Amino acid sequence: MGAGALPKFPRDKSDMNQQFTDPQEIEQQVQTRAPGTPSREPFRHAGDVYAFMSSQMPMNKPGSLEPEQYWAILTFILTAHGVAVPDGGINPQNAASIPLAPP
After folding, report:
1. Average pLDDT for residues 68-78, to the nearest whole number?
2. Which residues pair with 45 in a beta bridge?
3. DSSP-assigned beta bridge partners for residue 99
4. What is the C-alpha separation between 98 and 65, in angstroms, rounded?
5. CB under 8 Å to 26, separation ≥6 — which residues?
6. Cα maximum dimension of the chain
7. 58 vs 82: CA distance, rounded Å
8. Given phi > 0 = left and psi -120 to 50 = alpha, else beta, which region is 69?
9. Tens of pLDDT along 46-64?
10. Cis peptide before 58 (omega within 30 of 0)
11. What span, in angstroms and rounded, lies between the C-alpha atoms of 14 and 1?
12. Which residues make Cβ contacts (< 8 Å) with residue 6, sequence separation at least 6?
């Protein structure tokens, strides 16, 4: 939670010793990455965050929660970050229509 917790460009898992950094630094790292090195797509909308969460979290047992639990957690996190979340929360039908940042 808090500033920088939900960067447009997620951290590269190839360097798990990397400390949390400023989102602008992460974006610069992604843009200057050498061809062929590991990278991931940026978080553009709630569906991108769900895809990451549901495959990478929790850290000790990735993918172990039920889909409804991931959607509830995502709804909570984005609401806490001030993202406009539809009544009833985020779900597979509306996730791609919920932008994380202005275009």
Report:
1. 95
2. 99
3. 45
4. 22
5. 7, 8, 9, 10, 11
6. 42
7. 23
8. alpha
9. 999 999 899 888 988 999 9
10. yes
11. 23
12. 43, 49, 77, 78, 81, 100
Domain boundaries, the chain: 1-40, 46-97
Q: Are 67 and 59 in contact (CB under 8 A)?
A: no
Q: What is the pTM of this model?
A: 0.67
Instruction: Give the type of residue at 100.
Output: L
Residues 50 and 71: beta-carbon distance below 8 Å: yes
Cβ(50)–Cβ(10) under 8 Å?
Answer: no
Q: Which two tokens stand for residue 81?
A: 């970050």
Q: Is 65 exposed, middle or buried (0-12, 13-18, 19+ CB in 10 A)?
A: middle
Q: What is the mean pLDDT of residues 20-25?
A: 65
Q: What are the phi and psi torsion angles at 44 (to 5°)? A: -100, -35
Contact (Cβ atoms closer than 8 angstroms) between residue 37 and residue 14 = yes
